[in-house]
Amino acid sequence: MTQTPEQSVRKVSVQCTLNGQPTEFLAAPYLSLLETLRETLGLTGTKEGCNDGNCGACTVNVDGRIIDSCLMLGVEAEGKVIETIEGVAPAGGLHPLQQAFLEEAALQCGICTPGFLVSAKALLEREPDADEQRIRLWLAGNLCRCTGYDKIIRAVEKARDGMK
Amino acid sequence: MHPHQYIAATNITEAVSLLARHGARARILAGGTDLLVQLRSDRYELDAVVDAKAIPELMELTLDGSLTIGAALPCYRVYEDKEVAAAFPGIIDAASLIGGIQVQSRASIGGNLCNATPSADGICPLIVHSGVVTITGVAGTRTMAVEDFATGPGRNALGYGEMLVNVHLPKPMANFGAAYQRFIPRNEMDIAVAGVAAAVTLAESGDKITSARVALAAVGPTPIFAKQASAFLVGQPATEEVFARAGEIASTEATPITDMRGTVEQRHHLVGVLTRRTLAQATQRARGNF
Description:
The structure holds two protein chains of two kinds.
Chain A: H1 5-8, E1 12-18, E2 21-27, H2 33-40, E3 59-62, E4 65-68, E5 81-83, H3 96-103, H4 113-126, H5 132-138, H6 150-163
Parallel strand pairs in A: 1-5
Antiparallel strand pairs in A: 1-2, 3-4, 3-5
Chain B: E1 5-8, H1 12-22, E2 26-29, H2 35-40, E3 48-51, E4 61-64, E5 66-70, H3 75-79, H4 82-87, H5 89-95, H6 101-104, H7 109-115, H8 123-128, E6 132-137, E7 140-145, E8 150-152, E9 155-156, E10 162-169, E11 176-183, E12 194-202, E13 209-217, E14 224-225, H9 227-233, H10 240-253, H11 264-286
Parallel strand pairs in B: 1-3, 2-3
Antiparallel strand pairs in B: 4-5, 5-10, 6-7, 6-10, 8-9, 11-12, 12-13, 13-14
Helix pairs in contact in B: 9-10, 10-11
């Protein structure tokens, strides 16, 4: 019996910290981190938009930096500290950014929202005083085709002011 | 994506032996912001992806007057270093506008070089800083001026079993300044219609140009070192009239095409405008005004 190309490549054991939990999984070395999160680990909060690094819907935080998870291999997660949208809310509540997005109606279809939240959280953790221009520049790698952005920017500013 | 194996090489010898063993069916992975897109588009198939981010030389950032940037070092590491930013502002101009924050967390200047797109924002600033790349392979190590590294759209000077190790920028002389600007239809996250990097060194009086380099992006099959415009500037006063004349000369050195981003005519025009503006900005920086 001949092997399929997929069978000829061995899966790799990967250990990382995922949303605060030590996590070990077998990664197919040709799958992106996005595919690995959604299909191997069942974390479907991270969304696939363009799948080529333009839209930011798949944004996750790796070692304190936001990245497009469609542009990183799952096997590269070895030893990393990763936070996805599933790790944003504290137990039993919402993160101030999530609350502000609800109050400001900063979403319509919602596909881009997890990426915006992960990106905005990283910004406010690094720069709690980020002004509107800085927020807009930081979020330039996240595309939204519904809101026209203004509501998103207002929500991030509201969360920023509330977190002080 | 075609199933490939993944090897995180820990030293250069291991990486080049993998490249030599697999030939065109292995590639170096740095940030992956080009490689993964290309693999997914089935432009080519690989048997082995060799991650270079665990190789110390490829993650180097050394500022000792001169600057050495490891080929796999992500852009943010370059532009978040305040000393590097102060000494090499032309590089920072490019590193901070390649993609958005997410891409800058992963994408490397070295990867921008290897991918060798004509519109690469990262290459022209290296050219005007007189950058030199170090290439290593199973047959040994060699160096090359950055302007000779890209050989065509998506093509570079790397031979069989070779990899880019770093790019080295010599220590800027006193009264040196550099800048990079591009034209895009929006403010960020886009590909240059045209881009220009310029560097000048001024005489001590601050008003005469003693050396200059101009390089052009997205207006030819590779980034272009504008030799005639650069030579013209030497010995000239640092004035708007001279910058405008240099722009006219640089425009004649561009060989653009018409495509979805812009026309031949627009690109010739943009080279003139951007050459004038980057020379003025580089001159301001040479005078100590950032």
